[in-house]
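WARN no homologs supplied; continuing
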Amino acid sequence: MFVKGLHRDYPRRWNQDMEALINPHVTDLAPRLLWRVQDEWDLLGFEAVQGRHADYQPGSPDLPKVARAAAELSRTRCPDLPVKQAEHRWREY
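OK structure emitted
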C-alpha cells in the first residue's frame, strides 16, 4: 500500500480532493484508491505498484514508455467532474 497525506490546513489540500475524485476514472492507468481518512490529516491509501521514477535523459529506454503512457492518457475520456481547466490551473506559469 502507498499512503500519501496532507495536513487539513495545508493551503493546497484540495489537490487531494481532486485526486480522490478522478481516481475511479483512471484505474486502467493508475493505482486504485483503496481508502481515504480525513481528520487532522487527509490521507489517501492506494494499492502498491512496483516501479521507479522514469529517466527522462536523451536516449533513455524509459522515453518510449513515457510516450506510450502519454498517448494512452490522451485517449482516456475526460469525465464530467468539477476539475480546473488547464488554463486556470497553469495560469501562473
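The radius of gyration is 15 Å.
OK
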